[in-house]
Design a protein that fits this description.
The complex is a heterodimer of chains A (649) and B (255). Helix content of chain A is 26%, strand content 27%. With 649 residues, chain A is of the alpha+beta class. In chain A, helix 1 packs across helix 2. Chain A folds into three domains: 256 residues, 3-Layer(aba) Sandwich (Alkaline Phosphatase, subunit A), CATH 3.40.720; 120 residues, no CATH class; 151 residues, no CATH class. The relative contact order of chain A is 0.17. An eight-stranded mixed β-sheet of chain A has the order 2-34-25-1-24-9-10-23, with helices on both faces. In chain A, strands 12-11-21-20-17 form a five-stranded mixed β-sheet, with no helix packed on it. Chain B is an alpha+beta fold. Chain B folds into two domains: 117 residues, no CATH class; 98 residues, no CATH class. Chain B contains six helices and eleven strands. In chain B, helix 5 links the parallel strand 7 and strand 8. The longest helix of chain B is centred in the middle third of the chain and has 44 residues. Chain B is elongated. Chain B starts with a helix and ends in a 5-residue tail after the last helix. Classes of the chains: A alpha+beta (649), B alpha+beta (255).
């Protein structure tokens, strides 16, 4: 937006006026310095160097030459929610409380998402089938600790954090802060992204509900498919029934296209085409309360069978059903200017690719849309930026490297079946991020600095380690119902004979008496058991390769001495070796046959391994940076840069 | 009618749409209150309001006498009906220009202008049969989807984007969109001409030969006012009402 347009808008809207006070305020009493931090999830220093050498990232190269480049110490475990929480709070997991994507409640042994929770109202007014909330309830951020930017805002320095990870719901409104939630923001159904796939192809219909649902539909001869789109549960009605809307898809097999009718809206898309964002309205209480969402259709195929994909329904940034920005008008303001955008934390639909709903081309077309939207948002944010801290987060490198590592890893079990045409995919995404770096560098002047950082690097994920199956094989866990080995949440276990269990991507827990629901290991025996586990896991050998799949087993109380661990913390962290990672089955407590198997999922890159293998990257416009920097130091560094004139450095 | 409104609204075309819409709403409110003054029996309304006031006062004064209160209350209810009767004629007279103005504003301020980043969808309903020739390259705008023919019907739909605010298929006689200037009519469909279309659906053009009607779905627009998202109709209703109230005070109109 041009300055003149912005001022015009400021006259017209109090919202913009508030933005004016944040973005263009007088610098009296403040340093007037500017710092742009580009948070690029998963930007690997080795790949970065390689692409710079190949001339694919000229802007980043220029930034390195102007300032500095270093590997950036990541968190343990090097998972994004943990790493970004380290960045935000400048403290390790025992302080911020995030140890993995998934935690479990030891009292119930039920898993839950580690970053946020939805709590039901404390009391409701019941009128027939109506359940009207009276008090309590809402969405809570589970990350603890104090964010580094509080210091800046207290000093009157403007802070803008766009798509900030592990920040859903965003903090309370502050006159010096603008926040838009990123990683951790759910879709409208409360999941981390659940697609819907309408088809009349029986081969596509399965009971697998991971990442989305496949809904069988039928053409009764007129080319019309009636499709039901499920929205969130309606907590205002007894039993919380799922709200849904009906759409009609009219197929024309000659032109290989469909017309989708939804309420008063229609769109036509051809095969391999994406619709623009469509608005969905779910009436919760007639016209009095409506939940708004947005979604995009993708027509994979119309003949011989219909294959119509609907993206996870995202929270509408112009009419958010849950808080995604602070102040609440900020998401609307950005959407007005940059267009609608994915609000869910994991926008790339990796699950659709893993489940075979997407092929590589389909997935990449969606990943392109995500990055284009993010760039559009970046332009909008950059054009408003006047002073203080601007943090902008890119997710594309992380999720796309996860999915396409196989294209550049000859040792991957999927390398041979991946079209060689995709070998340049990762380089392409890196070079597009480089464009963003170049645009930020255009703002460089004597009062502006740039930091480009990532939370972790990457390594191949060639072999899956079934941690729970290993524990059972080595006698640390007892399988009493072998036919239930593949069921989640330890369905096959006899807890009375189980000493340890794995959950999440790196977590290993002791079945501790008095803490776990059916705990049997006395505290006095715990240390000994952990030492046995360490010896056993670090000594394990992959019979196929002769390599050791576990590089380090970290005992948390040794890793963080002096910290009191919360009850949801794991007792140990499994630091996998290069090429290995916990199997998907391990993450939710299943015990498949075999301990180590080939990873046949397109999700072929990982960072949930030993942290020394996958450090992040740090490129800055400053010559002087800390020696061996770590993510936890970045907040202090940022504060020091921005409060220099106040003696902050 | 469209040409008349083009002329009347010309002074507002240089303004930002939201300001144009607010000023037009304000003038409409004042105009409506003046029409109300001219077409209503102001003396009768004034007398009636005094009478109703005195009855209300009487009820307060004679609270200890229920029969008197009941009698006065009954009189008040009767006066209310008479009051509504006095309002009926001017309201009926106002309704027609109000709806015409609202239709004109709907045609001019309710939709986003066609552009490359604003995809829209149109459906053509053919009169007798779908023509054999296929949709080719439009003269203005871009066809962004194949053309879908709905089985067993005479409907064809397609998605498109405009260029310079318009989408044109000369061969089919389809012309959607507008010149792009603030407050100009944005054509979003076509139908057979008639008085209803001319007065109340000015956003529809005359159907080309062989076409029964054309519908299009063009994105609606919201205006940011006081930090909120307002539809054009909310802006019109709120601002015309506010200015009508103000006009009633200034011009001493008894309502």
């Amino acid at each position: 937006m041009k300055r003149r347009d912005f001022l015009k808008k400021a006259i017209l809207t109090p919202a913009a006026l508030a933005a004016l006070s944040v973005g263009c305020g007088k610098t009296t009493g403040r340093s007037g310095k500017r710092l742009i931090v580009l948070g690029v999830d998963g930007m690997d220093p080795n790949l970065l160097e390689s692409f710079i050498e190949r001339g694919l990232m000229p802007n980043t190269k220029r930034l390195m030459e102007m300032g500095s480049f270093s590997r950036l110490g990541t968190s343990n475990p090097p998972q994004s929610p943990v790493a970004w929480s380290n960045f935000i709070t400048g403290a390790p997991p025992p302080v911020h409380g995030i140890f993995d994507f998934i935690h479990r409640d030891p009292a119930t042994m039920l898993p839950y998402l580690s970053t946020s929770e939805v709590s039901p109202p404390d009391s409701t007014l019941n009128l027939g089938k109506l359940r009207l909330p009276v008090s309590g309830g809402g969405v809570n951020l589970l990350r603890r600790g104090t964010p580094f930017w509080n210091t800046l805002m207290d000093k009157g320095i403007p802070v803008t954090m766009v798509k900030l990870p592990v920040d859903f719901p965003p903090p309370a409104a502050n006159k010096n802060g603008l926040f838009l939630s990123g990683l951790g923001t759910p879709d409208i159904r409360g999941s981390q992204g659940s697609f819907t796939f309408f088809t009349d192809d029986p081969r596509s219909i399965s009971d697998n509900t991971g990442g989305g649902v496949v809904i069988p539909v039928r053409d009764y001869g007129d080319g019309c498919y009636t499709c039901r789109v499920d929205g969130p549960e309606n907590s205002l009605i007894e039993g919380s029934p799922t709200m849904s809307v009906e759409i009609k898809a009219w197929a024309d097999r000659n032109s290989r296209a469909v017309r989708i009718d939804m309420g008063n809206d229609s769109i036509v898309i051809g095969e391999k085409q994406w619709s623009p964002w469509m608005r969905f309205s779910f009436p919760a209480l007639g016209p009095l309360s409506t939940v708004h969402a947005i979604g995009r259709f993708y027509l994979k195929e119309v003949t011989p069978k219909l294959k119509l994909y609907l993206s996870p329904l995202n929270i509408d940034p112009e009419n958010p059903a849950l808080p995604i920005s602070s102040p609440d008008w900020y998401s609307r303001d950005l959407a007005e200017e940059a267009g609608l955008f994915y609000t869910q934390g994991f926008p790339e639909d990796t699950k659709a690719l893993s489940r075979g709903i997407f092929d590589d081309d389909d997935y990449l077309s969606q990943a392109d849309i995500v990055l284009e939207e993010r760039m559009s948002l970046f332009h909008s944010v950059l054009s408003r930026y006047r002073e203080g801290l601007l943090f902008f987060y890119f997710t594309s490198l992380d999720l796309n490297v996860h999915m396409f590592y196989r294209s550049m890893d000859p040792a991957s079990p999927l390398y041979g079946t991946t079209d060689p045409g995709f070998s340049g995919v990762i380089a392409n995404f890196y070079s597009r991020i480089d464009i963003a770096v170049g645009e930020a560098m255009e703002l460089l002047d004597d009062r502006t600095e740039i930091i480009l950082l990532s939370d972790h690097g990457f390594a191949p994920f060639r072999r899956s380690f079934n941690l729970n199956s290993f524990l059972a094989a080595e006698g640390f866990a007892d399988i009493s119902s072998p036919y239930e080995r593949n069921r989640d949440m330890y369905a096959c276990l006899d807890w009375s004979k189980t000493g340890a269990y794995g959950l999440g991507l790196n977590g290993l827990y002791i079945n501790q008496a008095g803490r776990e629901k059916d705990g049997v290991v006395a505290i006095a025996d715990k240390k000994n058991l952990m030492e046995n586990l360490k010896a056993s896991l670090e000594g394990a050998v992959d019979p196929l390769t002769g390599n050791r799949p576990v590089k380090n087993l970290f005992i948390l109380e040794d890793l963080y001495p002096g910290f009191e661990m919360p009850p949801w913390a794991p007792d140990m962290l499994v630091g996998y070796s290069h090429g290995y990672r916990a199997s998907w089955e391990t993450t939710l407590g299943a015990f498949p046959e075999g301990v180590i198997t080939d990873n046949m999922d397109p999700w072929s890159g990982t960072h949930c391994i030993s942290p020394d293998i996958c450090p992040g990257s740090l490129v800055t416009s400053m010559k002087t940076i800390p020696v061996n920097p770590t993510l936890t130091e970045m907040g202090s560094l940022i504060n020091a840069i921005l409060t220099e004139e106040d003696g902050g450095s | 009618m469209n040409a008349l409104f083009d002329l009347l609204l010309k002074p507002f075309q240089s303004l930002n749409p939201v300001w144009g819409l607010m000023w037009i709403s304000a003038l409409t409110g004042i105009l409506m209150i003046l029409v109300f003054k001219k077409t209503s029996n102001q003396q009768a309304i004034s007398r009636l309001r005094k009478k109703m006031g005195s009855r209300a006062l009487g009820m307060l004064l004679f609270l200890e006498s229920p029969p008197t209160v009941l009698k006065l209350a009954f009189g008040l209810i009767t006066d209310n009906f008479i009051y509504l009767w006095h309002l009926l004629k001017p309201m009926l007279i106002i309704t027609i220009p109000f709806v015409i103005i609202a239709s004109q504003l709907d045609a001019r301020y309710s939709r986003k202008h066609l552009s490359a980043d604003n995809p829209s969808t149109a459906t053509v309903f053919w009169e007798n049969s779908i023509p054999a020739e296929e949709f080719g390259k439009p003269e203005a705008g871009i066809l962004i989807s194949p053309v879908v023919t709905i089985a067993d019907s005479l409907e064809q739909s397609f998605s498109f984007t405009g260029s310079n605010g318009v989408f044109v298929y000369d061969a089919m006689g389809i012309r959607l969109g507008s010149s792009g200037s603030s407050g100009s009519i944005l054509v979003r469909g076509a139908e057979k001409s008639g008085i209803i279309q001319a007065l109340f659906r000015p956003w529809n053009a005359e159907s080309p030969p062989g076409v029964l009607k054309i519908h299009s779905h063009i994105q609606g627009i919201h205006y940011i006012i006081l930090g909120g998202r307002w539809s054009w109709f909310a802006v019109f209703l709120v601002f015309s009402s506010l200015w009508a109230i103000l006009g009633a005070v200034v011009f001493k109109v008894k309502v």
